[in-house]
Structures are given as structure tokens and as C-alpha cells.
UniProtKB/TrEMBL annotation:
Belongs to the UPF0045 family. This is Thiamine-binding protein. One of its GO terms (cellular component) is cytosol. Pfam families: Thiamine_BP. It comes from the Bacteria. It comes from Bifidobacterium ramosum. InterPro entries: MTH1187/YkoF-like, Thiamine_BP, UPF0045_domain. SUPFAM superfamilies: MTH1187/YkoF-like. Coiled coil: none annotated.
Length: 121
């Protein structure tokens, strides 16, 4: 059944490998530390490396790293990125904004394309 972007509810696909519902999630993840000085980029980079090493589709911008995958995978990678810094003894901040949309995939690239199409009309 084709995906209807305007439908309020979608069929929830089942992951054939796990037999569990696949809850596609796009998340904006921001991880940082407090008390490490005026420049936190070396710490942020460590968290971003954890996210990139996860293998999930991702892209980093000035404030967040956007990630897409199953809800459980996204939550896991966000937690691991935060732990990377917290386990060094730093007070760690994790900001997580998620759009959980069953039935959809590829939204990390499709959402910006849709906005560009709308703006070009």
C-alpha cells in the first residue's frame, strides 16, 4: 500500500528480521558538556563520532546531528553518545527532538526535498 503523507494514521511495518514493529524516527541530537571551559567542540566531536559510528543515516549541522532509524536504535545511539562524555566525569547535556512516523523511511533527505518543492511553487 502506498504511503499517504496526508493520512493521519499509517500501517506500521513489521521488521522481517526481528518481527517487531518498525517505528521510523528522525531525531535531532545535541550532546555537550558543562564545566569544560569555553570551547566544547572537542567533546561534542566525541559524541558525534559515536553517532557516525552507529551506521545510522545522519548529518551534522551547526547545532544538532540529525539521525534516522528505528526508534530503539535512535534512542540507543543518543544514549551512547551522551555516555561517551558522562563517563569521563563531565556533567552532560542531551537534547533530543524526535519525529516518530511509522511507515515512512528516508525522511532525512525527503523532508528537505518536500519543503524545497513547496517553496518553489
Amino acid at each position: 500500500m502506498p504511503i499517504d503523507r496526508n493520512a493521519i494514521k499509517q500501517e506500521v511495518p513489521i521488521d522481517p528480521e526481528t518481527g517487531k514493529p518498525y517505528l521510523n524516527t528522525v531525531a535531532a541530537i545535541q550532546v555537550s558538556v558543562s564545566g569544560a571551559g569555553s570551547e566544547v567542540s572537542p567533546y561534542v566531536a566525541q559524541a558525534i563520532k559515536v553517532i557516525r559510528d552507529s551506521g545510522l543515516p545522519q548529518e551534522t549541522n551547526a547545532l544538532f546531528t540529525d539521525v534516522e532509524g528505528d526508534l530503539d536504535e535512535v534512542l540507543h545511539v543518543a544514549g551512547e553518545a551522551a555516555k561517551k562524555l558522562a563517563e569521563q566525569g563531565y556533567r552532560t547535556s542531551l537534547v533530543l527532538h524526535m519525529d516518530i512516523r511509522p511507515g515512512f523511511t528516508g525522511q532525512l533527505t525527503e523532508k528537505p526535498k518536500l519543503v524545497d518543492e513547496i517553496l518553489s511553487e
